[in-house]
Design brief:
The complex is a heterodimer of chains A (220) and B (587). In chain A, helix 1 packs across helix 3. Chain A has one domain. Helix content of chain A is 34%, strand content 9%. With 220 residues, chain A is of the alpha+beta class. Chain A starts with 5 loop residues before the first strand and ends in an 11-residue tail after the last helix. In chain A, a hairpin with a 5-residue loop joins strand 2 and strand 3. Chain A contains eight helices and four strands, in the order E-E-E-E-H-H-H-H-H-H-H-H. Chain A is globular. The radius of gyration of chain B is 23 Å and the shape is globular. In chain B, strands 1, 2, 3, 11, 12, 13, 14 and 24 form an eight-stranded mixed β-sheet that branches. A six-stranded antiparallel β-sheet of chain B has the order 8-17-18-19-16-22. Chain B has a four-stranded mixed β-sheet with strand order 5-4-21-20, with helices on one face. The longest helix of chain B is centred in the last third of the chain and has 20 residues. Helices cover 22% and strands 21% of the residues of chain B. With 587 residues, chain B is α/β, with parallel strands linked by helices. Chain B folds into two domains: 356 residues, FAD/NAD(P)-binding domain (3-Layer(bba) Sandwich); 179 residues, no CATH class. In chain B, helix 1 runs parallel beside helix 11 and helix 4 crosses helix 11. The chains are: A alpha+beta (220), B alpha/beta (587). Chains A and B meet through helix 6, helix 7 and helix 8 of A and helix 2, strand 5, helix 9 and strand 20 of B.
Chain lengths: 220, 587
Amino acid sequence: MMRRRHFLNLSVSAVGGILVYSVDRKASHLFAEDKTLHFPLRFFNEIEALIVAAAVSRIFPSDDSGPGAKEAGVVVFIDRQLAGPYGRDAHRYTEPPFEDGPPEFGYQGKANPREIYREGLQKLKGFEYLAAAEQDSALKEIESSLFFSLLRQHTIEGMFSDPIHGGNVDMVGWQMIGFPGPRMSYSDDVDTHFGEAFRPKPASLQQITGISVRPSEDEK
Amino acid sequence: MKTLPSVDVVIIGGGWTGLLMAKELGSRTSLSVVVLERGGSRKVSDYMSDMDELDYAIHHRMMQNFSKEAFTIRHTTANRAYPIRQLGNFLPGTGVGGAGEHWSGLCKRFAPNCFEMFSKTIERYGAKKLPEDHAIQDWGITYDDLEPYYAHAERLLGTSGQAGNLRGKRIEGGNIFEGPRSTDFPTPANKVPYFSSLFRDATKSLGYHPYPNPSATISTLYTNQDGVTRPACTYCGFCTAYGCMIGAKAQPTTILLPVIQGHKNVSIRTGASVRRILHQGSPMNGRARGVTYVDASGEEVFQPAALVFLASFILNNSRLLLLSGIGEPYNPATGKGTLGRNLTHQVIVPSAMLFFDKPLNRFMGTGSVGISIDDFDADNFDHTNVPFLRGGILRALSDTGLPIRTFGIVPQSVKGKWGADWKKAGIYHYDRTASINFIGEHMAYKGNYMDLDPTYKDHLGDPLMRMTIDWRDNEREMVKFATEKAVDIGRAMGAKEFTPYSGLRHYEGTRYQSTQIRGGTIMGTSPELSVVNTYLQHWRASNLFVLGGSTIPQGDSIGPTLTLLALTLRTADAVVNRYLKKPEALM
């Protein structure tokens, strides 16, 4: 059966315009016309996507220190990860019996990331309508859950992975921290610039290699 | 089951040691050689576009798929074991080249006293200093026996470094604790990145002996004795968990595969999962007849062979012997049996996380380039007044700059792990933070071993390997000692804040240390205490040889890759020069 297609609709003006960052990290606001961004969703429905988008924006907020999960498109990144092999545990040992063990031996549960998200999102119903402070309190409530630790980990991944995966849009994450992305050579630089910031302009894997790379989330 | 035409040699596993043996036999004999590799084929150009932290370092694209086969773990025989459900404490490779494709390239010889750890410890401190339940033993060969093979392996890899002991002459600036080397490194030491240079200057000022890490990410264009040419490393920082995009890092596919492909008598079958080594005679005295495997189409076949080399991932060497009923399983209650004993790993911790007030540009580097000190390694210092034996290396690498794994490491003064304050601190500290790592020796203990799990199975229905392993006070005290030294060094490096390592408690299946787990089919001088002799020939089946990390009697500090290559070359000499002329036990 075909799943009904869901889209995530975000109003640009609602998020205060698009933050644009130059290499020296000076933020400037680019007030775009009031238009709606329209993302096709692979795993979440629209409400789930709005909740996740709101939650990751509290984990990695957009503020004076730089762009956040919103500008980087972290929710799009997570949606694709969960729709792909990672989301269904294609590389995790999932044979029974499942029994809780000592923390040193890691997660022993049966639920895969998709199921953990679906269950975790149940506890955040209406989250997208709360004020920021209330959202923070709601996240504090679930801070020790496996769902939250995945959400936090995926936020970092969506901020700083290659743009091919749907996050780190325009390499805003890399620009913010001064990571240049993949580069073919630092031969002339590796033993120089001591004590000073060396900040080559970031480029993505595709820009660097000219090769069309297939990300794991697009594999069967 | 289909039976294939017999071949002279079957090699199980297409990683470092299996392919090196295939290359040697292919070059030096006319034997028909078949390498069976469970994973897929690979070529250097596969790595042109792998500089993607998410798919390679986080999702482990080059590693064993744990959904098909994993390992189980427990701390003692009194506990039940749990599966390590996702890749964690070590990362077995799969595909041609194995874990040798994604290694970091650290390429150091063992200290001479590693080979005689038991007798040298007794000699210096007496038997009372040894932990009660230790299982350490001498290898049966010495550094001097292996030295020519170390030199040979270094020439193969083109290892970059600076000699610290050339034919007995100590050289400042190199590692003065290394054993005497007959030849200098084939290529000069690599460039030194900023963070490593701070470590070098600080350790020198404290009276220690810093040296550049011997590295397989080579410093200059180099052609080895097989005519394989590789370019100089460009310090891109994508080494550990990646294949090298330009072939500068020595990998099985860059230095062995091209030579093997020139030999018509050697073939590599990919997608071949070996299930059993068939043998005749008793478990204690027999001969291997060949192996059975499931081929890429899913059919189970029997490949008869006159000579079998078992060169799979470390734990799988023991597993295949246990499943095949060859040798005597180790029993920790009685101490009898040898197969599965002396399971060891490394003791690797970030001893001190250092927070600086200036940028480090630490995205430039390699998995192995950097500076180390051996002043606290092995038995290089007097242990009379410390509550532990042996030691490890303190090291400042520079390839830790990829952001997914390192963003958000902030000083303890920053509260919270998400939200505006954490984010702000994360941005500031991202390129101002690095760690001094400790890489320690892991002694063998009677209670640390492996056997077949009674509960959990792989996708073919065979039992998983069960690890029984925990730290002892020797490792905990060693780490405590190293942490104090690392903090002192960090202070001398000008760090503004520190997070010292919080201490070793229990062995973790979740925290990556290294892929260099060891033991299970250890070498030695008697069949009562070891599975193979010093030529890595099985005591109970003279036409079966076992290669790789499973033969190392106890955990060294640096990581054994170079040593395993040297041991494989020594075995190749013994097989070609002696065994093939007279196929019996090599003494």
